[in-house]
């Protein structure tokens, strides 16, 4: 009988075991709650950053469109999805990369609003040349194909902007030839639309630690 009493005295009471179990469960619940709250906070911050990024991009586009309001109203340029489009016929004669007087005057009128926009938003200007898909006319010794023509036209516009006062580190040229048409090349109207130069603000390249 004495041994039985000693055994009962050594075993912990049931309420103590239950209390330890509840304490452990509460601890697990608290950890799960903290994790859930942290995840929700991180997700909320990510969403806010994404919304802010999109709003900033929208504001930049609106600011550029306002800066270009006059030439847009005159129908001398187009502005779609952040890109400024100028018809090739305004800038150049057919199969030529020599800038016409009308085109030079237009570029000079765009210089100040473009330069202001780029400096305010810490961006640079990409000048892209495009052509239609017709081969270069025979007898033209200046260009071997549309790639070369589009490249030279982009360089001509880039140099004209620099000559007019654009800092050379704010602008660069790119060539696309007959790639990325905006209209069908099956008719003259479509080909005329595809012969164009586009200018688009783009972010500056960032230097990584590996490049240093």
Automatic annotation (TrEMBL):
Ranges that cross the membrane: 14-39
Superkingdom as given in the UniProt entry: Bacteria
Gene3D superfamilies (alphabetical): OmpA-like domain
Residues annotated as domain OmpA-like: 79-205
Keyword vocabulary terms for this entry: Cell projection, Cilium, Flagellum, Membrane, Transmembrane, Transmembrane helix
Pfam families according to UniProt: OmpA
Any one GO cellular component localisation term in the record: membrane
Record keyword Membrane present: yes
Protein name in UniProt: Flagellar motor protein MotB
